């Protein structure tokens, strides 16, 4: 049995952060773990990963792949039949594809980005400074689906507004301003820090900063609360902020979520679709909770 493996992870930021939760399980099988990913810095921030490479890095990656003692793992959990049929958590689908066993239910795992400060001390310094400027703060994110590696821009370099109504899976919350207004009223001594890309909506009363995505994981350590959809912030903050509330649309916590968070599901889903069907935008009708309902949930004890 090979003692080394090189894993290729495709997809978005949230999916890549999620995979760090499985590194300890993979470590039981392999002494050395190498990862190739567009978000290679995520894996450099995870203990248990020997090294990480960005797509397109050449010579060393090729030498590793051709090592006779190296297992090459290019597995896609989204193509797992159980996951497409919504019968298991993404972690469980991933484990099945990788040929590893999980010691607990998928929802009980958490991402692990424990080496950010060590690998990227400048990000730690930036996050500490921002946290000091903010004082008490709540982090929010209401949009998802775009890559933070390259937001769309026009010929003049201006951000093209993101049309999140065209998301293949409905998971964005469109009453963000009303929810922020209520958060400010309920928590007047807190600032609202909005995690969003430059071409995504801004909200009155919320602070929107341009910062590397790993900064938000560090800021989650200091946030009093996180309120978000099934988005990258959910994954960056889980295991770091003690009070996280996730608003779910067509995706579901039993497939993409964590048991340590408070998960609020959509009240009604019509024509629910299998995950990642190759048929374009979903026709589902999703009714998210109203802002007042969310505030009420925030004030109840965590699950």
Helix content: 25-40%
CATH topology of the largest domain: Rossmann fold
Strand content: 15-25%
CATH architecture annotation of the largest domain: 3-Layer(aba) Sandwich
CATH class of the largest domain: Alpha Beta
Stretches where pLDDT falls below 50 for ≥5 residues? none
How would you portray this structure in words?
The protein has two domains: 4-108, Rossmann fold (3-Layer(aba) Sandwich); 123-298, Rossmann fold, CATH 3.40.50.2000. With 303 residues, it is an alpha/beta fold. Helices cover 31% and strands 16% of the residues. The chain has 13 helices and twelve strands. The longest helix is centred in the middle third of the chain and has 14 residues, at 121-134. The chain has helices at residues 13-19, 23-27, 40-44, 59-66, 81-84, 90-98, 116-119, 121-134, 176-186, 213-220, 232-237, 253-256, 291-298, and strands spanning 4-8, 32-36, 51-53, 70-73, 137-141, 191-194, 206-208, 225-229, 244-248, 262-265, 268-270, 285-287. Helix 8 crosses helix 10 (213-220) and helix 9 (176-186) crosses helix 13. Helix 11 (232-237) links the parallel strand 8 and strand 9. The mean pLDDT is 91. The strands form three sheets. Strands 7-6-5-8-9-10 form a six-stranded parallel sheet. A four-stranded parallel sheet has the order 3-2-1-4. Strands 11-12 form a two-stranded antiparallel sheet.
């Amino acid at each position: 049995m090979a003692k080394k493996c090189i894993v290729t992870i495709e997809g978005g930021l949230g999916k890549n952060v999620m995979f760090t939760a499985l590194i300890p399980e993979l470590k039981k099988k392999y002494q050395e773990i190498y990862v190739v990913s567009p978000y290679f810095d995520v894996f450099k921030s995870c203990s248990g990963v020997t090294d990480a490479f960005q797509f397109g890095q050449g010579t060393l990656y090729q030498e590793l792949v051709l090592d006779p003692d190296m297992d090459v793992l290019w597995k896609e959990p989204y193509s797992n039949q159980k996951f497409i049929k919504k019968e298991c958590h993404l972690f469980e689908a991933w484990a099945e594809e990788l040929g590893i066993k999980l010691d607990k239910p998928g929802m009980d795992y958490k991402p692990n980005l424990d080496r950010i400060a060590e690998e990227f001390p400048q990000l730690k310094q930036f996050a500490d400074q921002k946290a000091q400027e903010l004082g008490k703060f709540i982090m929010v994110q209401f949009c998802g689906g775009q890559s933070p590696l390259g937001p769309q821009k026009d010929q003049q370099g201006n951000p093209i507004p993101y049309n999140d109504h065209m998301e293949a899976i409905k998971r964005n919350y469109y009453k963000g301003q009303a929810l922020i207004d209520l958060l400010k009223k309920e928590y007047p001594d807190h600032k609202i820090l909005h995690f969003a890309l430059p071409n995504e909506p801004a909200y009155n009363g919320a602070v929107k900063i341009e910062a590397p995505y790993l900064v938000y994981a560090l800021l989650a350590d200091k946030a009093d609360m996180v309120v978000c959809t099934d988005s990258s912030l959910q994954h960056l903050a889980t295991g770091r902020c003690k009070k996280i509330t996730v608003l779910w649309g067509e995706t579901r916590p039993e497939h993409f979520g964590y048991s340590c968070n408070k998960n609020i599901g959509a009240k009604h889903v019509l024509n629910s679709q299998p995950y990642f069907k190759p048929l374009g935008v979903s026709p589902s009708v999703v009714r998210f909770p109203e802002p007042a309902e969310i505030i009420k949930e925030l004030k109840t004890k965590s699950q």
